[in-house]
Amino acid sequence: MARLDRLGPPAKEIAQIGAAIGREFSYRLLTAVTQQNETNLQAALGRLVEAGLVFQRGGLPHATFLFKHALVLDAAYGTLLRGRRQFLHSRIADVLLSATGEEPADAPEIIAHHLQNAGRLAEAIVYWHNAGEQAVHRAANREAIEHLRRTLSLLEAQPETAERWRVELAVLSQLSPALISVHGRSAPEAGEAIERAVEVGRRLESSADLAPSIANLWFFTMARGRIDRADEISADLFNMARKLNDPEILLQAHHTAWSGRWIRGLFAEASNHINEGVALYNEEHHAHHRYVYLGHDPSVCGLGIGAIVQWALGYPVRSMQLEGEAVALGRRLRHAPSLTHALWFTCDAQAERADAASVMDTAAQLLRLSEEHGFFHHRANASVFLGWALACSGEVAEGIARLEEGIGALVKMGAQVNLTRSLCLMAEAHLSTRHYAKGLDQVAKALQIASETGEEWYVSRLYRVRAELLMHANSADDEAVEMNLRNALSVARQQGGKGLELRAGISLARRWLDSERHDDALNLLAPIYGWFTEGFDTADLKEAKALLDELACVPS
After folding, report:
1. CB 48 within 8 A of CB 54
2. What spatial distance separates the first Cα and last Cα of the chain, rounded to whole Å?
3. Helix crossing, 539-553 with 498-514: angle to 10°?
4. How far is it, in rounded angstroms, from Cα 99 to Cα 145?
5. What is the torsional sign of CA 203, 207, 209, 213?
6. Per-residue model confidence (pLDDT) at position 266
7. What is the pLDDT of residue 184?
8. Which phi and psi angles does 25 have, rounded to 5°?
9. Which 3-state string (H, E, C) describes 68-89?
10. In the sheet where 54-57 sits, what is the strand order?
11. Residues 280-317, buried b or exposed e (16+ Cβ, 10 A)?
12. pLDDT single digits (tens) 228-252
């Protein structure tokens, strides 16, 4: 303060105006704001530079100036009276607004900051919202959350009118997916924003405005394991789409339905919803969907889940094709949350066909992308997949550590859906280490979750893994082993999962071969294998063919 005072009023005033602009300010902006004679302005700036209070970069008129320390900035700014401070911020905002003209501002958050400090709150709301929207489109979700929350804080002081609710709903519709990306789809922070959006949306007349919030509520509810309630919300979206004859909402209704049917193990129904939903999709026309609906692109999701579903249904070649299409689309869109979804589902499909080497590579990509963008939910999934792949490759200790880390993070986030898969992969890792009791404990937890939530898609594999664990346990119970293999086969058949049925059939046929029930084994496996029309070079079908050849050579 004393150093500023000694420089005299002209230099002190320029320091105050510079402080109102920010830690760094350009000569051109300062000139426009002060409207002073350039000779006097340059003299004042020279005194500030000579005194060591600000640094100059570049030559005039292209120079920028930087306060040496934040304390100097605070001292200069702190001497401004409230009225003068508001006037300067308003003046700075006007200069910046005149510079942008009709074009969107490159850094709307700077204009928003000055408008807010000028007391021009209605305008500040618009620019904070623009800043949040721009950040969402760059997948800079932490930045987006900060800007959108500022918008909401200013909206709270506005009168409760329909216009205010429309703006608030638009902000919440973008905030919710950003929160999902950063904190996870089951995080309380995301749930609070989503539920508020639904509350606000119900106050408006247009049902279409409410659709993104309803879809996001489905996402949060599903992640929390409330699958029955999620199905009801999905049905609400279908009703809304049909009532309004709105194909955009119908696309998202199918989006929720294919995910829900997959989780329930209703693979054929999931496939039908994927086909109908993706048929409605247009990459350019529906680009905005990934910013307000569930935080990712619907077609990327459909292709990715389609890869899992097609493997389960018995079409491994089609499954691998869809994997590639999902990842290619995710990369082409240049939207990190969508790409992480593609990689996540690709890991799931690769793990389904027990391709540990491919999972290792895909999970490493998923981990890098998740860490780069701070996607904690996807990071947890990446740890689970990477841990399983490491355990399958012989690096069991590191693999189990990774699995524990990933599962722990998912539980901490309140995630319920897909825990059955994660616990199953952990059980398989314990099978590798001969810790059979630990593996059986993981299977029991997973089956309990499946029973409570209705998450059925991994149940057949869980029964098969439990049979393998029991087979190796010291107190092996032959009857329990066979019962679990029969359960695995029965569930696969109920779900129409030919890929799952083949896996269970191989295990049960091998069991019967060892028990010298050759005809039973052959009669079980031959029709299952004979159903397939593709993928004969994949591991499961090659194993089935080898076992059938072995059975054919055994005398009756």
Report:
1. yes
2. 102
3. 30
4. 27
5. positive
6. 98
7. 77
8. -145, 150
9. CCHHHHHHHHHCCCHHHHHHHH
10. 24-26, 64-67, 54-57
11. bbeeeebeebbbbbbbbbbbbbbbbbbbbbbbbbbbbe
12. 999 999 999 999 999 999 999 999 9
| The predicted structure's pLDDT at residue 362 | 98
- Contacts of residue 181, Cβ cutoff 8 Å, sequence gap at least 6: 139, 141, 295, 337, 373, 375
Considering only CA atoms, which of 540, 538, 545 is closest in space to residue 504? Answer: 540
Query: What does the H/E/C string look like for 399-433?
Result: HHHHHHHHHHHHHHCCCCCCHHHHHHHHHHHHHHC
The residues with which 26 forms a beta bridge, in sequence order, are 64
In which residue ranges of the chain is pLDDT below 50? Answer: none
- According to the model, what pLDDT value does residue 181 have? 82
The whole-angstrom separation of Cα 237 and Cα 53 is 60
> How far apart (Å, rounded) are the C-alpha atoms in residues 274 and 375?
25
pLDDT digits (tens, 9 = 90+) for 330-354: 999 999 999 999 999 999 999 999 9
Gap between the Cα atoms of 474 and 150, Å rounded = 61
Position 11 scores a pLDDT of 85
Contact criterion met (CB below 8 Å) for 379 and 370: yes
What type of residue is 240?
A: M
The answer to whether 342 touches 304, Cβ cutoff 8 Å, is yes
**H-run or E-run covering 64:** strand 64-67
Position 251 scores a pLDDT of 97
Task: Sketch out the chain's domains with CATH numbers.
Answer: 1-80 (1.10.10.10)
From residue 429, give the alpha-carbon distance in Å to each of 219, 360, 400, 412, 506: 30, 14, 7, 22, 20
Give the chain's length. 556
CB atoms within 10 A of CB 63: 17
Predicted TM-score (pTM) of this structure: 0.83
